[in-house]
Design a protein that fits this description.
It is elongated, with a radius of gyration of 22 Å. Helix content is 6%, strand content 36%. The strands form 5 sheets. The protein has a 13-stranded mixed β-sheet, with no helix packed on it. Strands 8-11-14-17-20-23-26-29-32-35 form a 10-stranded parallel β-sheet, with no helix packed on it. The chain folds into 2 domains: 143 residues, no CATH class; 101 residues, UDP N-Acetylglucosamine Acyltransferase, domain 1. The longest helix is centred in the C-terminal third of the chain and has 16 residues. The protein has 1 helix and 37 strands. The chain is mainly beta.
């Protein structure tokens, strides 16, 4: 049977505060010098960030392994920060969230619910990752962006600005979603595609290649936009569009239909 024990590298200090959820948090102190892959050597006696408790079963410590929580960052609830992960600045990790691998969460970022941030992923600025969302690989979510639901942002993808990715949507490869853009439903943005402005990609739509969806455009249904296509219109179709002339032809057909 597992026994309750404190973290092997940290202890709680007497310095404490109450977070916005009403949980009492304690600042941690390093009791054994260790080398952090991302932050370098963390010396014995160094003060770290805040946790709710280290007095738990080893598998449920708020912070363990080679992880480092510092600054005014805090970890509470059943959240875990482990591996070589780093949480710092004014970041929060709460609920059942997991931050692990070589992931960074910093700035005023929030990771909560059952969300996961792993690999070399980063969440920063005022970004939020919550629900069952997952940010992994070398992905970066920053600015005021929000990733929620069962959404997955991975590869070298970036979500920034006031963009939102939710539902079962995926953003992968070198794709960029920014501005006030939204990607949701079962939509997928991949490759070097960009979705920005007030654009919406949803349903089962797929935007890939070097495609750009911007302005007030909407791509939804089963539409598939790839290649170097640029979309500034509302596009719902079961067809795939790989070349700009196909988009232009579609626009002309719609105009002709409206004029009849």
């Amino acid at each position: 049977m597992k026994t309750i024990k404190e973290s092997e590298r940290f202890e709680l200090t007497d310095e404490k505060k109450v977070n916005v959820f009403g949980f009492e948090l304690f600042r941690i102190k390093v009791i054994k010098t260790f080398k952090h892959k991302l932050a370098g050597e963390i010396k014995k006696g160094s003060l770290g960030g805040w946790v709710e408790s280290l007095d738990r079963l080893k598998d449920y410590n708020n912070v363990f392994g080679d992880a480092w929580v510092s600054g005014d960052a805090w970890v509470s609830g059943d959240a875990e920060v482990f591996g070589n992960a780093r949480v710092y600045g004014d970041a929060w990790v709460s609920g059942n969230a997991r931050v692990y691998g070589d992931a960074w969460v910093y700035g005023n970022a929030r990771v909560s619910g059952d969300a996961k941030v792993s690999g070399d992923a980063k969440v920063s600025g005022d970004a939020e990752v919550f629900g069952d969302a997952w940010v992994s690989g070398d992905a970066w979510v920053y600015g005021d962006a929000k990733v929620s639901g069962d959404a997955w942002v991975y590869g070298d993808a970036k979500v920034s600005g006031d963009a939102k990715v939710s539902g079962d949507a995926k953003v992968s490869g070198n794709a960029r979603v920014y501005g006030d853009a939204e990607v949701y439903g079962d939509a997928w943005v991949s490759g070097d595609a960009k979705v920005f402005g007030n654009a919406r990609v949803y349903g089962d739509a797929w935007v890939s290649g070097d495609a750009k969806v911007f302005g007030d455009a909407e791509v939804f249904g089963d539409a598939w936009v790839s290649g170097d296509c640029k979309v500034e219109i509302r596009l719902c179709s079961r067809f795939s569009f790989e070349f700009q002339y196909q988009i232009d032809k579609w626009i002309k057909l719609e105009k002709d239909f409206e004029e009849k």
